[in-house]
Sequence to fold (385 residues):
Amino acid sequence: MFRHLSFVVKSGLRNRRRSALTIASIAVSLCLLGVLMAMYRALFLSDEPSPAQALRMVVHHKVSLTVPLISAFEPRIRQIPGVRAVTAYQWFGGVYKEPKNFFARLAVEPDEFFRLKSELQLPEDQKQAFEHLRTGAIAGVTLAKKYGWKLGDRITIVGDIYPFNPELTLVGIYNDPEDTDTLFFNNEYIRQAMLNTGREDQIGAFWVQADNAADVPRVAKAIDDEFGNSPYPTKTESEKAFALSFISFLGNVKLFLAAICGAVTFTILLVSANTISMSVRERVREVGILKTLGFTTGNILSIIVGEAVFIAGAGGVLGSLFAAFLCDSVRRFPMTAGFFHDLTFTSGVAAAALGVALFIGLVSSLVPAWGAAKTSILDSLRYTG
Fold:
């Protein structure tokens, strides 16, 4: 096949409109397939958590994330052996200027927060300001850059879950290897605003840090056992498992992604097989001429298969480029609230996508190529279809 490479390329592009449409179809399908494979990797096969992440757990109500716990749980969690730090973990929600400006807005307890997020990079004076100013807030560097925030700016959030509008002062801009798209502010602000409403002691969840990674399973079980018979039973899970719990609302995501990947692969196979079959039918007489010129059955087989692999490979390369662009866009899209920060089109995903494209080109061409290659010279030259 490599000996006839130039002939393979010219033959593959002889009908340029059909070849372009086939390459485009394969590219779109491979783009979708590549994004789905990248999502599967990001959700279920991503790298091991960092040392800091491996120590963190989230404690929430066993029934649902929408059912709150109570603040009285915090000192009891803190007394459990193996617990190093605990802070409230409140999703505030709300709207910043307009609904499309979506990003995570979380209320925490500043003094404990910096112990839990040891990887977070923030100047000491900004840490002190966040700990001592009740209306203080810190934002990730990406978030601050997006909205043009500077230290000292006032940030107003219009409440929806909570019936008040926090007036926050930006006192710090942090850098975090895992998340730079979140706004953190003081949970005491919420508690004071909700006094005498019956909601001042409600906590959405608790963020817990263990002494070491080996203690995490034991600490998680101890916390759930502590509140197992209370009116507010808990479920304690790792930080990664907590993030995946949002995805689980959609159902069996693994099966869903696998089914779509299978359907896309089968569709590409049909498109490629149809194109190759049409090309071979048009060139039966040409096959006879090639045989009279000394081309062997193996030569003809390799040429036809090579054309299919070339077209599928071209579509695979374009599809991979589009998929890489989409993955980067989704990762940066604010509506994902940081849940897809691991969504990257890695070299491994790219190799898998290209491998699928080349495999489909090979498989889809084998039957028509073998049929054409085995046709005798006389039958080929007599062919009038």
